[in-house]
Every structure is written in C-alpha cells, then in structure tokens.
Write a structure and sequence with these properties.
This protein has 365 residues and is of the alpha+beta class. The chain contains eight helices and 18 strands. Helix 2 crosses helix 8 (341-359) and helix 3 (135-145) packs across helix 8 (341-359).
Length: 365
C-alpha cells in the first residue's frame, strides 16, 4: 500500500465496519490478525501502552476515545462539501498547562533526571480552540502548505484525526525469503526552518545525545522480537528538512523472528520511545504524573496493518483531534539534563505552528 505526502492515508468508514475497543485490546488485535480483510487502517492510542505495562492512573481521560479504532481500508474522499475560508480573526487557544506550569513541569523532569530516575522525558501540552474550519479544510490546507510523509485523515463520524506526522514508528515488510524486516525511524532534535538552523542542529551535542538515547532504547525494543544479531542502526543521525522545521532522524532495522505476532510487536515497542523518554516505563510514569490529561491518539500510532504480518505505522505527532466542535492540538518535546525550560516551551510552539495556521488559531504570545 502506498502512503506518502502525495498519497495520504484517508479513512472514513461506516460505523458497522469499525473494530474498536475502550479496554482490553487483545481481542481486537487477534481479530485483525485472523481476518481475511487485506488491510486495516486507523489508529492506536498512546494509552494502549498501559495494557502492556503496569502504570499509575493520574491523568484525566477527558476525550473518551477508543484505545484502538481500525476499519477495512478503502480509500475514501475527504468531505469537502462545506469547506470554509479561514476567518480573518484568529481563534484563541487554551492549554492544559499555563506557561508557568509547563516551565515548572520541565523543571520537575530535570529534577527526576538529576536524581537518576530517567535520562529523558517527553513532556507535552495540549492546546484547545473553537473549531472554525471544517476538518476537510484543515487537512487540505496542511497538505497544500505543509506536506508531510505520513499525512492522514481519519473520520470516525463524531470525531476526526488529522495527522501531519513526519515520523515512522514501524514498517514491517516481507523479504524475498519470506521473513519480515522491521524498520523504525525515531526523530529527536528540532529547529525552525530558518537560515543557519540546519547547521546549528547538526552541531548540537544536546540534540545528538538526545537522539542517541532513543536509538539505544529502540534498538533494545526491536531486539526483543528480532532474530539474534539482526538489529542494526543503518543511520545513526541525519538532518532532514520539513516544511517548517529541521529534524534529527535515525534508522534502526532488524529481522523479526518467525513466531512473532502483532501483539508481540506492540508489547515490545509501543509506544515509540521517541515520545516517552528513557527508560521507557519510568518516563511513562512521570508523564502520567505531570500531564493533566490523557494523550489519547496523540503519540500513539496511525497507519495500516495487514493480516499477513506487514504494516506501516506513523508516530501520531503533529496530530489534531477534532471533537464536539473543538480542535485539540497537542505538542511536546524531549527533556534532558541540560534542557532550558523556556526553550523547551518555545519548541512546542515551533512544532505547533503549521497546525495552528491550518486551523485558524493564534499562537500564544
């Protein structure tokens, strides 16, 4: 199946065809594996991870979305029947954190790092604003002005996901001998796409170390399900240009053991380490403590899964959630020992810029 900036993943199923769950995911995952449907497409919530690891329950689940929602993939048109020109007056957004609270939470992450609990924590905030453009108009604007490798539009009726993710979580593909190769491309390190910023990111020891930590984590995760000796880092770090930012990207791949199931893959790798931090479980505990609301689809995965054991999933970053006439725009970043709280806050706004512009929302001062 082809998925790229020029061929986005568009899913708009009828309700009867959707496989979804709000609790134990294992039955849905087994149903997908045993299905005769060629391809399933949809999303996996970040909070699916709590069914693979024991985690505290502190944050509020205010959106009440499924842990998994997948449907048989039939390419569908985006509903453009009521697309609107964005209003001239930009909407104001509120955040799950006041700026001061976000800076304090970054500081708390740094304290945990200094105490030896973790090496890195991915902290996020979620902006919310009134919905003043149709989901289709927002998606079209992003595709036109800010194309992304893993663009996706998921319309489940009473809510929509619009993703402009640049990050590959997992690609599983068949090799000529019948075995399966698994590929992960974590992103760490961001700069605005301005003159001199690519060089600055390339030279940044902080960003280089941040990516190296996640590469090590992801390599270990893949090692749990791959043939011994097959996991390798094919690209330790490359700087990639995206419409509004530069990113540092690595590539890790391995050959899956023949007995590995879909549930095995997700248990070993989900959620992606680039959106948790490391060690993964302790970082997720800190995220649950500091972030006031559950992430839901954000930082989970979006993509397609086939019963033959192949799949392609993005990391659900740069992803908007539309529900009840509101647009939710979550953004975050990795916190390490030498992070500057204000710089980390500013980085979230850099990442949010394209989504705010597409949705007709003003960036905070």
């Amino acid at each position: 199946m082809q998925w790229s900036a020029h061929h986005p993943l568009i899913v708009a199923p009828d309700r009867q065809s959707v496989l979804q769950t709000f609790d134990d995911p294992h039955e849905v995952l087994r149903a997908i594996e045993q299905s005769t449907t060629p391809t399933w497409a949809g999303f996996l919530s970040y909070d699916l991870g709590r069914f693979f690891e024991v985690l505290p329950e502190c944050a509020t689940d205010d959106l009440h979305l499924p842990l998994i929602a997948m449907s048989p993939y039939l390419s569908a048109p985006v509903d453009r029947s009521s697309n609107q020109i964005p209003p001239r007056e930009l909407q104001k957004a509120t955040s799950t954190f006041a700026r001061r609270q976000y800076l304090q939470s970054v500081g708390k992450c740094i304290e945990y790092i200094a105490a030896g609990d973790v090496f890195q924590v991915n902290l996020s905030q979620r902006f919310t604003a009134p919905l003043v453009r149709t989901p289709g108009a927002i998606f079209d604007y992003l595709r036109t002005h800010f194309p992304a490798a893993y663009a996706a539009y998921l319309d489940f009726g009473d809510y929509q996901l619009i993703s402009n993710s640049p990050e590959l979580f997992l690609r599983v593909e068949r090799l000529p001998d019948g075995r399966r190769r698994i590929v992960n491309r974590p992103i760490k390190g961001t700069r605005p796409r301005l003159v001199g910023m690519e060089s600055e990111l390339l030279k940044s020891e902080k960003d280089k170390a941040e990516l190296a930590m996640i590469v090590d984590l992801q390599r270990n995760d893949l090692g749990r399900i791959c043939e011994v000796g097959s996991v390798r880092v094919t690209t330790a770090r490359a700087i990639e240009a995206h419409p509004t930012v530069y990113h540092g990207v690595a590539t890790i791949e391995g050959v899956l053991r023949r007995d590995v199931t879909l549930t095995d893959i997700l248990r070993a790798t989900f959620p992606c380490g680039s959106v948790t931090g490391c060690p993964k479980i302790r970082a997720m505990e800190i995220i649950e403590e500091l972030e006031p609301v559950r992430r839901g689809p954000y930082c989970g995965a979006i993509g397609w899964i086939a019963p033959d054991g192949t799949m392609e999933l993005s990391v659900a970053i740069r992803t908007m959630i539309i529900r009840d006439n509101k647009v939710h725009i979550p953004v975050g970043g990795g916190i390490v020992a030498d992070s500057d709280p204000q710089a980390e806050y500013d980085e979230t706004l850099v990442k949010a810029r394209a989504m705010f512009e597409a949705a007709g929302v003003a960036l905070p001062d």
